[in-house]
Automatic annotation (TrEMBL):
GO terms for biological process: tetrahydrofolate interconversion. InterPro entries: NAD(P)-bd_dom_sf, THF_DH/CycHdrlase, THF_DH/CycHdrlase_NAD-bd_dom. GO terms for molecular function: methenyltetrahydrofolate cyclohydrolase activity; methylenetetrahydrofolate dehydrogenase (NAD+) activity; methylenetetrahydrofolate dehydrogenase (NADP+) activity. The lineage of its organism: Eukaryota, Metazoa, Chordata, Craniata, Vertebrata. This is Tetrahydrofolate dehydrogenase/cyclohydrolase NAD(P)-binding domain-containing protein. Residues 2-105 form the Tetrahydrofolate dehydrogenase/cyclohydrolase NAD(P)-binding domain.
Length: 128
């Protein structure tokens, strides 16, 4: 089940959800328009496939940031390939209440546990 549906559904279904107001964007959403949405969001889930698309100035203080993006780039220092997410991890981690790293965050679990990841992130965000 897509995470947007899990966030939006009521808590009475087979897969209980968050009853959240969900805003979906895509890779062609202008960055300033995207920033208007992410700056208001309690939870940001990014899976656009664009390295460092989400930066600290786009995130609300204390928000939970779930980075699902997997991007292979060339490390500017070592010139070796490395994996990064859609979120500028180093910048956003100073502002977010919770953030998943790439690699090792969402993809450290199998996809059947996406619902657990969502609930864990919500819990961490509430604790922040």
């Amino acid at each position: 089940m897509p995470i947007a549906v899990l966030l939006h559904t009521e808590g009475v279904h087979e897969h209980p959800g968050g009853e959240a107001a969900v805003t979906s964007s895509h890779p062609y959403t202008p960055k300033e328009q995207l920033k208007k949405h992410t700056a208001l969001a309690d939870i940001v889930v990014s899976a656009a496939g664009i390295p460092n698309l989400i930066t600290a100035n786009m995130i609300k203080e204390g928000a939970a940031v779930i980075d699902v993006g997997i991007n292979r780039i060339q490390d500017p220092i070592t010139a070796k390939p490395k994996l990064v997410g859609d979120v500028d991890f180093e910048g956003v981690r100073k502002k977010a209440g919770y953030i998943t790293p790439v690699p090792g965050g969402c993809w450290s679990h199998d996809s059947d546990n996406a619902n657990e990841e969502y609930h864990y992130c919500c819990k961490k965000s509430a604790e922040a």
